Amino acid sequence: MFAARRALISNTIKDVFTRRLKHSLPDLPYDYRALEPIISAEIMELHHSKHHATYVNNLNAAEEKLQEAVAKGDVNTQIALSPAIKFNGGGHLNHSIFWCNLSPNSGNPDAALANQISKDFGSIEEMKKRLSETTVAIQGSGWGWLGYDPKTKSLRIATCANQDPLHATTGLVPLFGIDVWEHAYYLQYKNVRPSYVQAIFDIVNWQDVNARFKNATGC
Ligand SMILES: [Fe+2]
């Protein structure tokens, strides 16, 4: 009787712990059609409900296995799981930023961000040009980023391969990211990545980028 009750309590605690650690697919802050004609509803629906959802599901599965491995003291399995956690965790983090980085109501950089862009790149147009060129040139799948370097207190352009997350791999704070996996544009732009990258600047959610910059600089 006692043993059964103890097992029930133990399982309940385990369930609560496991549930708390589960990641979930965030809702888009707009409709799938909202970014047309720059990004089609078909791409947005597949990208969000299939691709991002898969990263979330695979991250949860990998973390569950990691919990079991940690509980057993199985270090080999813990190490073997790290690529899956990096890939799927990165995919979840990157896409969660990406959806918020975009909006049908684009806006402009605020004064603080505009000043920093001018200081580090000369002008907003020059920053866009350099971010576009760098992002278009990524070999294979990856992300182009405008990030903030807390060490030098300056903006930087960087690229990450696959789903490597910017902050964990470079130390830069992500402000604006461009997904150049083919799933992000191929159905609409085919092989013409430069047209997709150029068009995405028309749907930058500058309010979101301003807020991320403010948060990164702490002012
Ligand atoms: Fe993607």
Short description:
This protein has 219 residues and is mainly α.
Task: Give a description of the structure.
The structure is a single chain. The protein is mainly alpha-helical and 219 residues long. Helices cover 60% and strands 11% of the residues. It has nine helices and three strands; from the N terminus they run αααααββαβααα. The protein has helices spanning 2-21, 41-72, 75-101, 111-121, 124-136, 166-170, 186-189, 193-200, 206-217, and strands at 142-149, 154-161, 173-179. The protein has a three-stranded antiparallel sheet. Helix 2 (41-72) packs antiparallel against helix 3 and helix 5 (124-136) packs antiparallel against helix 8. It is globular and about 65 Å long. The N and C termini lie far apart (59 Å). Bound molecules: fe (ii) ion. Fe (ii) ion binds next to helix 2. Fe (ii) ion is lined by residues 47, 51, 95, 179, 181, 183-184.
Unreliable spans are: none
Number of helices: 9
Mean pLDDT: 93
Total strand count, please? Answer: 3
Record the SSE blueprint.
Blueprint: H1 2-21, H2 41-72, H3 75-101, H4 111-121, H5 124-136, E1 142-149, E2 154-161, H6 166-170, E3 173-179, H7 186-189, H8 193-200, H9 206-217
Antiparallel strand pairs: 1-2, 1-3
Helix pairs in contact: 2-3, 5-8
Fe (ii) ion binds next to helix 2.
